[in-house]
Amino acid sequence: MWQDAPLFPESASTISDSVDQLYAFLVVVSLFFAFGIATVVVFFAVRYRRRQGVIPARIHGSVQLEVVWSLIPLGLSLVMFFWGAKLYFATLDPPPGAMDVYVTGKQWMWKVQHPTGQREINSLHVPVNRPVRLTMTSEDVIHDFYVPAFRTKRDVVPGRYTIAWFEATKVGEYHLFCAEYCGTKHSEMIGSITVMEQHDYERWLTGVAAGETPQEAGARLFESMRCNTCHSGQDGARGPTLTGAFGKPVQLRDGRVVPFDEDYTRESILNPGAAVVAGFDSIMPTYEGQLSEDQLMQLLAYVKSLGAEGGDQ
Ligand code: HEC
Ligand SMILES: [Cu+2]
Fold it and tell me: The domain that contains 104 carries what CATH number?
């Protein structure tokens, strides 16, 4: 839809057509009522203008009319709501097997890292027809990761992780914008997403120095920061075993059950006292101020990989 309309961004992801259809529905409904009401206003203004000696009949309301003009907009707005909510949830929920890309926003650039370790700034290369899951955070203020061609737009917030995903359907190069005003050079916080055939992507990967993968770097940190002394995974260890833990619910000492997700992992490392696992003492030291966002992402990637090894996620 709209491919040839110059005002519209290209449609290049699995959800972009659905977003456009919802958008078209909203526009059509709005135009219909805007023109309908404007027409009626003009018509009545002429039809019932003040004339010498003519006094129109007074109307004292009509229940029937009230009901009709309440129910029709109610129905329409419920359609908008459920349609929009359905689409919104679809954009939140990455399909299984998505490729994990880590994104960090900072004034004024986008830093990304591939699951295989390659890093990029203000550009992201991805294979076509493959879901890509973005785990995003910011080093300073709120940014917003926006790829119009994919209809993908999510805030990137300091102190927490937000997840977004897309699956590109067309090879090409697409704009990446920051869509949250973030300071002087906000307008320069732009980049490109390059969508490639799978084999081109693989060739591209081999051409970029990879270094460690986030997972490997995380495993190294896990030892150098001495996390493994408590999280050894052995019976009687001072900390809970992390193998097979990510993605499962955690029973806390105060009775709450919380999901072991990205933000829980982050909080456990920076503020361990906030959520203490049932059956353990609150002895884990805080690592607040000792880890960069990069290192936190790496530890997260490692903890996540332990979860995946432990079976279904
Ligand atoms: C002094 C021992 C100790 C060290 C060192 C330690 N932890 Fe912990 N950790 C614990 C204990 C005890 C708990 C459970 C109580 C709690 O949640 O505070 C825990 C909980 C966690 C949890 C939540 C686990 C769950 O099952 O819900 C994560 C994730 C975690 N630690 C990661 C780390 C990482 C990463 C490091 C290194 C940067 C680290 N820990 C270092 C003792 C430790
Ligand atoms: Cu920004």
Answer: 2.60.40.420
